[in-house]
Amino acid sequence: MEDILRPLAVVGAAVLITLVAGWAADRALRRLDARHPETPLWDLLRRARRPLRVVLCVAILRGGYESAQVTRGHETVVGQVLTLLLIGACAWLAIRVAAALVESGYARYAAGVARDPARLRRVRTQVTLIQRIVTAAVSVVAVAAMLLTFPAMRAAGTSLLASAGLLGIVAGIAAQSTLGNLFAGLQIAFGDMVRIGDTVVVGGEWGTVEEITLTYLVVATWDERRITMPVSYFTGRPFENWSRGDPRMTGTVFLHLDHSAPLDLMREHLEELLRGCAEWDGRAWSLAVTDTTPTTIQVRALVTAKDASDIWTLRCLVRERMVEWLRREHPYALPRVPVADAAVRDRRRKRPQTPPEAEDIGPGPGSS
User: Fold this and answer.
1) Selected residue with higher pLDDT from 247 and 160
2) Helix (H) and strand (E) counts for the chain?
3) Which of 40, 134, 243, 291 is deepest in the core (most CB within 10 A)?
4) Nearest to 326 by CA among 313, 314, 335
5) What pTM does this model have?
6) Is 301 left (phi over 0), alpha (psi -120 to 50) or beta?
7) CATH 2.30.30.60: which residues of the chain?
8) 92: enclosing H helix or E strand
9) How far is the C-alpha of 365 from the C-alpha of 353, rounded, in Å?
């Protein structure tokens, strides 16, 4: 009977202490969050309550499994398993706490510079990459700690340290592209080259940066496709970033019209049209003839908007409304294509041709 009650008591005590401690910690974080609503740290720390419970439960079991005497003859194996679980749970808890601290710092910074979206996107990109670096570093340390719990790995530690330089050189050569992308990701994050939310043009594709990792970058195109590119592409090739400093943009609309187009009336109509468009930011507009040919003139309408999305909508709207207005009010201003009369061309084609030599030959012998 004692062999059954003792392990049940140990496990039950571990679970009970874990539940009580977890509830108390969650209650304390709730109160702190209610007292300090200006900072989201305490609410973010509540995300770590699950790994905290796992750490507490495994730690209690690790310390009291020997007294349960249920693993006679297998104490070493059970202790090793519990140690590995404890290291993994501690790494999980450390990652959650680090994420909460970074997110809290970003939230407080964003509240102070909410009117500067460019700076906000830059910090968001850096925060995202910092979280990934912390996660990778904690994971590597946790795996190394797990391996060092094995006696064979501890005995081989000296030889591993002695050959670390050679292994580092070999690994660097073998993973040259991966390391290049890793350092390129750090350069992008802290060099302010491209940020999450930027409007970019890469490889002839227009889209928005959706995700940046240490090795690749995802661009969401306007037609909902996703282009995944290595981050080294952005450090080794030129690309267009339409929202790096100021997202405001200037767009152009070209119209090919007849020489008789009423330019003054077109300017008046363009100004009236822009005043009724929510996409126009009111900064500037113009209409001018930029080129001419023997049959048409090229008219350029220049408009401005607050970002790339609005400038595209505004350009399409101006193009449609101007063409519709010209077709309805001034159809003579639209370009004309001269064509020849098909009937006259057919009559000329059917007319009999006189041989050129017949014009120089006189009357033949015997003619009267």
Assistant:
1) 247
2) 13, 8
3) 243
4) 335
5) 0.49
6) beta
7) 183-241
8) helix 75-112
9) 25
Count of CB atoms situated within 10 Å of the CB of 354: 8
**Stretch(es) of the chain classified as CATH 3.30.70.100:** 249-333
Tokens of 343: 């009937």
Cβ–Cβ < 8 Å for 104, 40: yes
Q: Could you give the angle at which helices 176-191 and 117-148 cross, rounded to 10 degrees?
A: 140
Segment (H or E) for 178: helix 176-191
| Torsion, Cα of 27, 28, 32, 34 (10° steps) | 20
3-state secondary structure of 345: helix
Residue type, 126: Q
Label residue 7 exposed, middle or buried (CB < 10 Å: 0-12, 13-18, 19+). middle
3-state class of 94 per DSSP?
Answer: helix
Mean pLDDT, residues 167-191: 58
**CATH fold of 249-333, please?**
Alpha-Beta Plaits (3.30.70)
Q: What is the CATH number of domain 183-241?
A: 2.30.30.60
Distance (Å, whole) CA 255 – CA 106 = 47
If phi over 0 gives left and psi between -120 and 50 gives alpha, with beta otherwise, what is residue 307?
beta
Q: Render 11-76 in DSSP notation, one character per residue.
A: HHHHHHHHHHHHHHHHHHHHHHHHH-TT--HHHHHGGGHHHHHHHHHHHHHHHHHHHHT-STT-HH
Torsions phi, psi for 196 (to 5 deg): -65, 130
Instruction: State both tokens at 106.
Output: 């970003």
In whole angstroms, give the CA distance from residue 208 to residue 121: 12
Higher-pLDDT residue of 131 and 357 is 131
> Distance between CA 85 and CA 48 in Å, rounded?
17
Task: Give the tens place of pLDDT for each residue, 141-156.
Answer: 888 888 777 776 665 5
Rounded Cα distance, 246 and 169, in Å: 43
Question: Could you please report the per-residue DSSP string of 110-127?
Answer: HHHSTT-HHHHHHHHHHH
**3-class DSSP state of 242:** coil
The encoded tokens of residue 176 equal: 């040259």
Q: Which two tokens stand for residue 264?
A: 């003054």
Q: Give the residue carrying structure tokens 């048409």.
A: 296
